Structure formats: C-alpha cells, structure tokens
Amino acid sequence: MAFGIIGWIIIGGLAGWIASKIMGTDAQMGLFLNVVVGIVGGLLGGWLLSFFGQPLEGQGVIMSFLTCLIGAVVLLAIVGFFMRAKK
C-alpha cells in the first residue's frame, strides 16, 4: 500500500503521540514535535529492525506504525537519558 506524505505524517504523528504517552513526555510536546518524533522514530525503528534482519518492505500499515512507535520510544528514551545527564 503506497502512502503519500500525508499518510506518513499521520502515522508518524500517532506513533509520536503514543510514544510520548508511554514515556511520560506528552505535557512537554505539542502536535508538531509528536509528528517529528514519530517520523524520526520511523527512520530509527526501520534502521534498528533492518539491523536485526527484519524485512520491512511490503509489511503493511500496522508494521509501519509499530516500526514508528518502537523507534519513537527508543528516540525519547535516548533524549531523556541525555537530558537527565545534562542536569
């Protein structure tokens, strides 16, 4: 299923929002940052899953969402670690 840019923004926004709820950072983030975290998380999640040998091509919307969600949670954990270390 081919997505346009709007589809990826929607999937990224949902994944970023859910990841921010999981990590407890939702109060600090707005809609724009949720979308950015979801999209960057999708790139990070795609890299991580391909690094571990999981094929991602043609897996569908649910796998795309889960990839974005996993990557967004990892991204928020990394950012949280560095923010705590900075204090």
Automatic annotation (TrEMBL):
It is a multi-pass membrane protein. It is found in: Cell membrane. The keyword Transmembrane helix applies. Its main location: membrane. Keywords: Cell membrane, Membrane, Transmembrane, Transmembrane helix. Coiled coil: none annotated. The keyword Transit peptide does not apply. InterPro entries: Transgly_assoc (IPR007341). One of its GO terms (cellular component) is plasma membrane. The chain crosses the membrane at residues 6-24, 31-49, 61-83. It holds the Pfam family Transgly_assoc. Belongs to the UPF0410 family. This is GlsB/YeaQ/YmgE family stress response membrane protein.
